[in-house]
Write a structure and sequence with these properties.
Layout (H helix, E strand, L loop, with lengths): L7 H15 L1 H4 L7 H8 L9 E5 L5 H9 L5 E5 L3 H10 L6 E4 L6 H7 L5 E6 L8 H14 E11 L16 E5 L6 E7 L24
Parallel strand pairs: 1-2, 1-4, 2-3, 4-5
Antiparallel strand pairs: 5-7, 6-7
Helix pairs in contact: 3-4
The structure holds S-adenosylmethionine.
Length: 218
């Protein structure tokens, strides 16, 4: 029998805090995203078709569980988590869900991991990693990698304490959509960067069809 008042959510928060104490700059937050933030972020995704989604920095999986609950049976979710303890826990949570793949690697390995699985591109990429503390070259490389891995019309969705990423996201369509969301500790900017084009579904579009190549000098 569990301790009175002890819930799965308490356990997840305990794991989160413990990992924060061990790697404060990588984890960058002492508690997971709020339920309200998770629902708001998920509302930016069109789940009406099978989707290929990648998530950077799922942590204890608060967004991943919501995505998995909303996705249909033919969708796939790729979780890129650097922290081995979080990754093991995500493996345990999604052990019975063949649509969810936990990858204990840097988000920068996205295209390599997709290629290994024969996936052309993602429809959506969601990020909770602390972009603002990444050194500029790493930040730009990851943005380029993210842009190139998205299907035309796909979206990169981030929630961050600052909105500084907008100035670096030069590959994406110029009109990003951003809101300051107060129902989270701390409040966050939720920003959606879109890749030009029309989203077909399931990331199956041939990358060669994309007229929007990277603007960064390689
Ligand atoms: C602020 S926490 C967000 C956790 C969760 N998404 C949430 O909203 O509660 C950031 C997470 O990103 C992970 N992370 C940081 N840098 C990463 C990277 N380059 N690749 C993959 N995961 C990363 C950390 O280990 C941590 O779990």
């Amino acid at each position: 029998m569990g301790r009175p008042g002890f819930t799965v959510r308490n356990f997840m928060s305990a794991l989160f805090f413990k990992r924060f104490l061990q790697k404060p700059f990588q984890i960058a937050s002492i508690i997971p995203s709020s339920k309200a933030l998770v629902e708001r972020v998920a509302s930016k995704i069109d789940f009406s078709q099978p989707r290929t989604i990648a998530e950077f920095g799922p942590g204890e999986g608060v967004h991943s569980r919501e995505l998995a609950a909303r996705m249909d049976a033919d969708s796939q979710l790729f979780l890129f988590e650097l922290d081995p303890a979080f990754s093991r826990d995500l493996e345990r949570q999604f052990a019975d869900d063949p649509r969810v793949h936990v990858i204990n690697r840097d988000a920068a390995s996205l295209s390599e991991e997709l290629a290994l699985r024969g996936i052309a591109q993602c429809d959506y990429i969601l990020s909770g990693i602390p972009f603002s503390i990444l050194e500029i070259e790493r930040k730009r490389n990851l943005l380029r990698e993210t842009h190139d891995a998205l299907a035309p019309g796909g979206a990169f969705i981030i929630y961050q304490v600052t909105n500084e990423l907008r100035q670096h996201a030069i590959d994406f369509a110029p009109e990003s959509e951003s809101e300051y969301f107060l129902q989270n500790i701390p409040p966050m900017f939720i920003t959606v960067f879109r890749k030009g084009g029309q989203l077909d579904g399931n990331g199956a579009t041939d990358p060669a069809d994309s007229q929007f190549s990277s603007n960064y000098a390689r």
